[in-house]
Specification:
Helix content: 25-40%
Strand order of the largest sheet: 1-2-3-5-4-6-7-8-9
Radius of gyration: 17 Å
Distance between the termini: 29 Å
Largest sheet: 9 strands, mixed
Length: about 280
């Protein structure tokens, strides 16, 4: 298992790189984008993982968010994996934009035919960090994780389930209570089956309600008030906010007037999010 570099370009003193590798967990080739900051030339740096949303590939964030300038400023290595396995000829994998290709939902599928390849939770939390640690100049110890929409859901779930692995968590317009929204119900039924107890393991709102620990990493969320999916009840930030309040989970939920669900929104506030992670990661 090793990274095969496809391309790189200099950016803010560091390099933006695109890789492919064979994933044992997903049993297929997977793609990812990486930004290596200039500080990595003199020693290992903290790593920050970004999980993208529905229909995205590994390219959307690294090309549109404007994150490199802030990662270079704070000395963070960024890793942005693809959102699902691809090109596996699974019946129905390309039929819907919100299920199958580009829509792995960061779960370990248990329902056939998805179970063989759609193991995105283990890919993100186990295989990918091991690979990054082996091949890139990252510091040992906790990482940070953030994401957008479906990827915001993934970041919250990965972070909440693995507090020793992720010291910092944030999200842009996350699908915050997937068991209660149409996107989540469709994905969870297709990947996990009808048992809603299995769903709870991948629902940030349920995870916060059931958390049993003393130390909580503060979470930052930005939500655009003009987000079309907010009006469609796909995101449900208020459900997560209420659960955090009841559980004592520190949360800063910023509602941003006029902003939608796009990368224009993400690029506006990306500096705040990288600063949030840098303050925590660089203090460890």
């Amino acid at each position: 298992m090793s990274l095969s570099e496809k391309s790189r370009a200099q950016s803010f003193g560091g390099t933006t790189r695109f890789y492919t590798h064979r994933s044992a967990v997903c049993d297929c080739d997977m793609n990812l984008a990486v930004y290596v900051p200039p500080q990595a030339e003199t020693g290992p740096v903290p790593v920050l993982y970004y999980l993208s949303g529905l229909t995205c590939t590994e390219k959307n964030f690294i090309e549109k968010a404007g994150a490199q300038r802030y990662a270079a400023e704070y000395g963070l290595l960024l890793v942005a994996p693809d959102t699902s396995p691809r090109g596996l000829n699974i019946p129905g994998e390309d039929d819907d934009w919100d299920f199958g290709s580009g829509a792995g939902f960061y779960v370990n599928a248990t329902v056939d035919p998805w179970a063989k390849h759609y193991q995105m939770y283990d890919y993100v939390t186990k295989e990918l960090p091991e690979l990054i640690a082996e091949e890139l100049p990252v510091r040992s110890g906790p990482a940070g994780i953030f994401g957008h929409s479906m990827g915001g859901h993934g970041a919250l779930v990965c972070g909440l389930r693995n507090p020793d692995q992720y010291a910092s968590i944030s999200a842009f317009a996350p699908i915050a209570a997937p068991s209660q929204c149409p996107w989540g119900k469709k994905a969870f039924t297709g990947y996990l089956g009808e048992d809603t107890e299995q769903w709870a393991a991948y629902d940030a709102t349920e995870l916060v309600k059931r958390a049993a620990r003393d130390n909580f990493s503060p979470i930052l969320i930005d939500q655009g008030e003009a987000d079309q999916f907010l009006a469609d009840a796909q995101l449900l930030p208020e459900a997560f906010e209420n659960a955090c309040e009841q559980a004592g989970q520190p949360l800063t939920l910023r509602r941003q007037p006029g902003y939608d669900h796009s990368y224009y929104f993400i690029s506006t506030f990306i500096g705040d999010h990288i600063r949030h992670h840098a303050e925590i990661l660089n203090s460890n």
